[in-house]
Amino acid sequence: MTSFFELKKNGTNLQTEIIAGLSSFLATSYIIVVNPSILSQAGMPFSAVLTATVLVCFFSSLMMGLYAKNPILVAPGMGLNAFFTFTAVLGMKVPWPVALGAVFWSGVVFLLLSAFNVRTYIIKAIPRPLRYSIAAGIGLFISLIGFSNAKFIVSNPATIVGPGALTPAVLTFLAGLLVTAVLVTRQVKGGILMGILFTTLAAYPIGRWWGTEELIHWQGLFAAPDFSLFFSLDLVNSLQWAVVPVIFAFVFTDMFDSLSTLVGLAEAANLLDERGEPRNVKRSLMVDAIATTMAGLVGSSPGTAYIESAVGIEAGGRTGLTAVVGALLFLPFLFLAPLLSVIPAIATAPAVVLVGVFMVRPVTKINWQQLDEAIPAFLAMVLIPFSYSITQGIIWGFLSWTALKLISGKKEDVTWPLLIVDVFCIIALVLE
Fold first, then answer.
1. What was the pLDDT predicted at 208?
2. Highest mean pLDDT pick, 198-202, 227-231, 285-289, 352-356
3. Does residue 74 sit in helix, strand or coil?
4. Residues 214, 342: contact at Cβ < 8 Å?
């Protein structure tokens, strides 16, 4: 083990790697509950999505550790699950089996792009300000979903949206948000997961003491894994022209989420090769692509490298052993679906809101004084939550960037790969 993971070469040891793996797991484990709670709103069984989520986390993180040898966990991506449920299924009325097919095909495309190193051209095609703003826009979108799930923000005919009534459930959500924020601020390991557990316990009296609808329904502790979503994807209908924008959005979002995470973690922990690139980046992207392909087969939204892996890296994790330890810790949750299904939407809502905080950070890297870049970045960022569609933010961000650069006489900022992406954006508009 020491020689396989090159522990001494990387300045680490077995104990440090195990602690780092546990730390990354605690920081990432909220996805076990949050992903099923989001995808179940698309009509998919909670227990089956939980099984799929755990399997994606386990196998993908294991591959990242053994094949790519990086201390990075892989799990269904926040933002990607929101796009699956709220944009594709509920917004575009794509049946969830077809959406799972789109996940599978996006994984295949991602796999081909990674295998043939097309990522280099795609990276050059995407202006950095748009990368930052799209990440921030997805963060705002996720936070909006969290507030909506908690009924803190509700539909209002006069103002489009507005604040909800301060019911016992909303007050419990606010208490959970405060506690979770304090835990995260104080950098408590597993703080988000602790916040979910606190809010669940706080929600127990609702419906029992306060006379409203009960939110906690105990169904037991253990159960066999639910494999009912395995191979339930629709591979044929997911290749219709109307679904192409969904596949494109999955590929685009997944690839750049993965790339930005890998680059960020590599820079922070000096996990770089001799050329200054993230260590084993091609293998890491291959793992991400396989994770997405697998997710479509087992019944989940796409998998991606998790930025929360930084917690384990900060704890000293430097090799793939960190990811292997984290992967193994996911497995027991295959048998805890009844216990985890007790957790209500208001308990996961604080975690969802705070994930938005983490994702909005890149906006500080945008030069807001340079308007031909600031305006497209702003449009991409705000149109994602305002239109309730990640696709719309991406499309208008790219098209406005190209138009402003060309009209401003800055043709050198518009590359031919970017023009190809623009063509796909126009096709997506026509097909919607």
1. 61
2. 227-231
3. strand
4. no
Q: How far apart are the first and last CA of the chain?
A: 51
Mean of per-residue pLDDT scores for the chain: 86
Structure token digits, residue 153: 């923000």
**What is the Cα–Cα distance from 32 to 383, expressed in whole angstroms?**
29
**Whose structure tokens read 């922070």?**
268
Contact call for residues 322 and 312 (beta carbons, < 8 A): yes
User: Residue 155's beta-bridge partner residues?
Assistant: 161
In this structure, are strands 303-305 and 74-76 parallel, antiparallel, or unpaired? antiparallel
Tokens of 122: 């795609």
pLDDT grade for 146, boundaries at 50, 70 and 90:
confident
Tokens representing 138 are 């997805």
Q: Supply 74's token pair.
A: 């892989």
Domain ranges within the chain, ordered by starting residue = 14-216+239-431
Residue 35 token pair? 């992903």
Query: What was the pLDDT predicted at 204?
Result: 81
* DSSP state at residue 237: G
pLDDT value for 355: 77
Decide if 80 contacts 292 (C-beta within 8 A).
no
Residue 325's H or E segment, with its range, is helix 320-330
For residue 167, give both structure tokens: 């019911």
- 215: Cα within 13 Å, side-chain hemisphere: 25
Neighbour-count burial of 367, counting CB atoms closer than 10 A to its CB (0-12 exposed, 13-18 middle, 19+ buried):
exposed
Q: How far apart are CA 70 and CA 352, in angstroms?
A: 26
Q: Are 351 and 198 in contact (CB under 8 A)?
A: no
- Assign 3-class secondary structure to 347-377: HHHHHHHHHHHHHCHHHHHCCCCCHHHHHHH
Of 77, 56, 11, which Cα lies nearest the Cα of 308? 77
Calpha distance 32→193 (Å, rounded): 10
Cβ contacts of 403 within 8 Å, gap of 6 or more: none
User: Which amino acid does the sequence have at 375?
Assistant: I
308: tokens are 């929360």
Q: The whole model's pTM is what?
A: 0.76
Q: Are 108 and 318 in contact (CB under 8 A)?
A: no
Nearest to 396 by CA among 297, 95, 404, 43: 404
